[in-house]
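Our consortium's second objective concerns turning raw sequence data into structural hypotheses that experimental partners can test. To show how far this objective has progressed, the report includes one record in full. It was chosen at random from the queue rather than selected for favorable results. The single chain below, 501 residues long, was entered without modification.
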Amino acid sequence: MLYITVLFLIFAIFVFAKNPLNITSYFLIGSIIGWSMSLLGLLQYLAKLNLSYVIVKYFFYVPFGVWNDLVYSEVNIINVIRFINIGTLLFVACMYLYMIYFIYGYRKPRLASYIPCILLVVQLILYDPEIYRELYKITLSLNILGYDAFNSLYKSFYSFTKVYNLLMLIIPLIFLIMEFLRRKNLPIIREYYFFNLVGLLCIITFHLITFSWAPAVLVSIYQRTTYLIYEQPKMIPSFIYYIYPYLSVFCFTIMLFATLKYKSLKKVYSSEHHSKHKILKKNNFGIRALSHSLKNQLLAIQFESEILIDELKDNTDLLETANTINNISKQTIERLNEMHKRIQSQSIILEPAYINDFIDDFVNNQVASMPNDISLNYKLTSLNPRAFIDEEHIGECLNVMIKNAIEAIEAADDDGGIINILTEVINDWVIISVHDNGIGMEKEIQSKIFEAFYTTKTGDNNWGIGLSYVKQIIDIHNGNTVVESSKNKGTTIKIMLPLIM
């Protein structure tokens, strides 16, 4: 058992040294340190009590020579009790905060989430043997409580704190399991939760088997004196000692596997989206080739039209036609340059983002460029949902949707154009809706609007590429695109992104 703990500590240091640390990593390290402190303190305490070596041998696999050194060491046994209690409470606090931060999605939890840790500090103080003795002296001198009443009060507090510490580990774990069961639309996140839960279940179960009795004062006072009597911890039943080494090997093996798998998921996630980048590049190659070919032809048309303009200065009718050809060529070339610029931005980096914050920034940047007769409003869900997004590409998708909404409102030729952006959470999706009160569209058109080069508009700059780009980007985000529209009643386009938290 002792050797397994040392190996696990070395492994944990190796894992965390190779990976950047975040707040949850510190809590995980703290729980490992707390566990190790508890175990080493328990070994020293049992040695100071000179407990049967047979039991300790099965429990820790400590060589007899090391055991003798521990028995005759000059370590203060009160400090050993403090060491055990600090380790146990550190483990409970760090495991609790680790799970709380995981539930909150690495966002800083509410202040109320830290309140349960206050009682852990109280336990650390009241379970100190010296403080226990001083409190007994005070109650005895002031005649507040008798010997039996004082011990009864401490036993009640001990029973309460055992249940309290258990709930601090179990309740967040239940919430994590509930979140895991809800993660249906994000397979990677679901797997991320699963291996995290496996590791947590093992380490918490193993801790409860070994230290269900801790923290504890581990002393009693001889009646009507201040002499401390050291007590043996109420450890696991004797028959478990024989299977304990095998149980420890099994639990630590599962924990190591879960930790390795947990760390590898980020690489898996990156490689999955790397393959999608390749698909995006392959699709864009054809568009770039078409764009290049069209641009060459249009430059030739523009050049010829400029020659015609010079030659037809005296022919007003033909000159107007030549100018129209020249202007259309210029506008189309500009549109192709814009499309080429968009295609060049191929790098898609999906990172966790708070959608409400993102939409708030987007709308504030967009308002200045809106036409005077069209108002842009937004309403955000009371939650602040998170999703994996590439903010640059999602921002471009929203730009396309806003541009289409403006054109639909202008086509309706009504006063008081309105565009509303709405965020909501439905099941495991965060939905961003862009609604306009424009001209709307018929059902047969709705099924085609996400097809490349499909357009119902007659303008020279409308190529039918915008919404196909939106669909492609949202597909890479593992999301969906939905359109709802009625003729002369406006249009709503929704992008659905898998929810993280």
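The partners drew two points from this record. The chain is about 65% helix and 10% strand. The first strand starts at residue 219 and ends at 221. Both points have been shared with the crystallography group to help prioritize constructs.
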